[in-house]
Amino acid sequence: MNIGIIGAGNIGATLARKLTACGHIVKLANSRGPETIYNVAREIGATAVTREEAVRNVDVIILSIPFGKYVELTELLAGVPNYVTVIDTSNYYPARDGYIPAIVDEGKPESVWASELIGRPLIKAWNAVLAATLAGDYREIPSSGRIAIPIAGDNDNAKSVAMELVRDTGFDAIDAGTLENSWRQQPGTPAYCTELNVQQLKTALVIADKSRSPRNRDSLMDEFMSSSEPLTHEHIIARNRAVTA
C-alpha cells in the first residue's frame, strides 16, 4: 500500500519503519519540514515529504501527532478522497492538549470529536500501545501470547485495512466496534497500554468504565510526571494494569 504518515515522533517513525519492512511505500512528514527528518526517513526506508505531499496519492493516512494539534489538519485533509483510510493513533491528555469541553464535560469519545473536527471518518488504531511496545518484534510469538491491539471505526472496509496493517506491525488485531465505542481503548481504561493478548483484550474492552477512565488517566499521568526516577517500561505497564483493574 501507499501510506502517508503525519508525525515523525516515536509512534510515527516506528510505524514507518515497520511498514516499510513489510513492503509498503511510506511517505513521512512532520510539522517542521522534510529536511528535518531526511536522515531518519532514509534510514528506515521511507521518503521525507511535506505534509501536503504525504496526503496525496495514498491509500492510507496515519495521523501520529499530539491530539491538540488536530485543528491544523482540517484544511490539509479537505481534498483527500473518501476512499482513503485515515487512522488516528493519538490520545487526549488535557494537561498537554488543553481543555476541550465536548470531551471533558460531555464525554464525547476523543476520536469522534477529532472526526467531526477534520470532517471525515477516522479509524482509531495503535493508540493503546506504548512506543516501546510498538517497537518490539512479536511476529514469532504464538498467538496465545502475542499482544493484541484494538481497532475502532464505522467503515468496515477501512477498519479491515487498519487491521491488516496492525498485523503487519506484529500484533493481533481486535475489532473494538464503532468509533462511538472507541472510549473503551482511551487512556485510563483496562485496554490502554496494558499489553494484553486477544482474550484478555476482549475482556478489557467489555469491562471498561467510562466514568472512571478520565480519573484513572489523570492520576496515572500525575504519578508518572512526578516520579523522581526514570520509569521502566515494566513499571508503566504494571501501574496501568493496577489502576484500571
Structural overview:
With 245 residues, this protein is α/β, with parallel strands linked by helices. The protein is 40% helix and 12% strand. The strands form two sheets. The protein has a six-stranded parallel beta sheet with strand order 3-2-1-4-5-6. α9 links the parallel β7 and β8. The longest helix has 14 residues.
Q: Which SSEs are present, and which pair or pack?
A:
Elements: E1 2-6, H1 10-21, E2 25-29, H2 38-44, E3 47-48, H3 51-54, E4 60-63, H4 74-77, E5 85-88, H5 94-97, H6 101-104, H7 110-118, E6 123-124, H8 131-135, E7 148-151, H9 156-168, E8 172-175, H10 198-207, H11 213-226, H12 233-244
Parallel strand pairs: 1-2, 1-4, 2-3, 4-5, 5-6, 7-8
Helix pairs in contact: 11-12
Overview in brief:
With 245 residues, the protein is α/β, with parallel strands linked by helices. It has 12 helices and 8 strands.
Radius of gyration: 17 Å
Total DSSP E strands: 8
**What is the helix fraction of residues, given as a range?**
40-55%
β-strand amount: 5-15%
Helix/strand structural class: alpha/beta
| Poorly predicted tracts of residues | none
| End-to-end Cα distance | 38 Å
Helix tally equals 12
> Element order, helices and strands?
EHEHEHEHEHHHEHEHEHHH
**Overall pLDDT metric:** 95
User: Major sheet, described briefly?
Assistant: 6 strands, parallel
Strand order of the largest sheet: 3-2-1-4-5-6
Inertia-based shape: globular
Question: Can you tag this structure with a few keywords?
Answer:
single chain; about 240 residues; alpha/beta; two-stranded parallel sheet; 8 strands; about 40% helix; globular
